[in-house]
Amino acid sequence: MSFEYAYVACVGLIIGSFLNVCIHRIPRGESVISPRSRCPQCSRPVRAIENVPVLSYLLLGGKCRGCGQPIGWIYPLVEILTGVGFVLLLYRFGLSTPFFVNAVLFSLLIALAFIDLFERILPNVMTLGGTVVGLLLAGLQSEVFLKGAGSVWGEGGIPSNYVNSLLGILFGGGFLWAVAALYLRIRRIEGMGFGDVKMMAMVGAFLGWQFAWLTILFGSLVGAIVGGFYIYLSKQGRRYELPFGTFLAFAGMAVVLVGPEALDWYLNRLGGS
Ligand SMILES: [Zn+2]
Prior knowledge:
Layout: H1 2-25, H2 55-59, H3 74-93, H4 97-119, H5 124-136, H6 143-146, H7 158-187, H8 194-234, H9 244-272
Helix pairs in contact: 1-3, 1-4, 3-4, 4-5, 4-9, 5-7, 5-8, 7-8, 8-9
The structure holds zinc ion.
Zinc ion (ZN) is lined by residues 39, 41-42, 44, 64, 66-67, 69.
């Protein structure tokens, strides 16, 4: 049992190390496979022994061995986040196909969260590609997420998983698209990038329409609170462009871990009052 956790944690750290490469190269349109990783300051190639997740960062004292320039703390952070995320998924789902499906979703969301934070873009190759992957994997997803919504769609099962994944794409993308289009009409500025729309289509493909909705709710709530504080403290004014995708990505991960309980709690409260 504890071996499983240790193994999944290691796999998570290694995937996290690969996500760092994706975060830095995909926005620049570079290949994530070749060339080998280099120091961004002095272009010194990173040797295999210096590429062990987290450990290398600690052993190198957070500095490049060639030029002594500091290595961003974001590298070990992404690795640890992925490792912890995978362990939580294992705790939630056990070693099962839903674990695998949601580990794919976590990897996409972690990479997208940091790309949006640094670059304010959500690359199509990940959002649209992720939507296709989510739909293809729908048959393996937990029925907690893609269960049939009432008698119309059947009570779970493989066919309705795909139907609900499609509904998730339409709702997740469609809802945000409508908000973005409306905002553009009224304020005449793009308040929300259409990258967010495509990313929510992806979340919908993995989690279905109910949990896509919950993700938007969580993400908007946390985004409004954190963004409000940030704008207030930094005095950048309301023109500051929030990385909404970052909030949605973390909301999506939270929904995978506690979404069904949160939705039950919410619906019970609605029914009770
Ligand atoms: Zn260097």
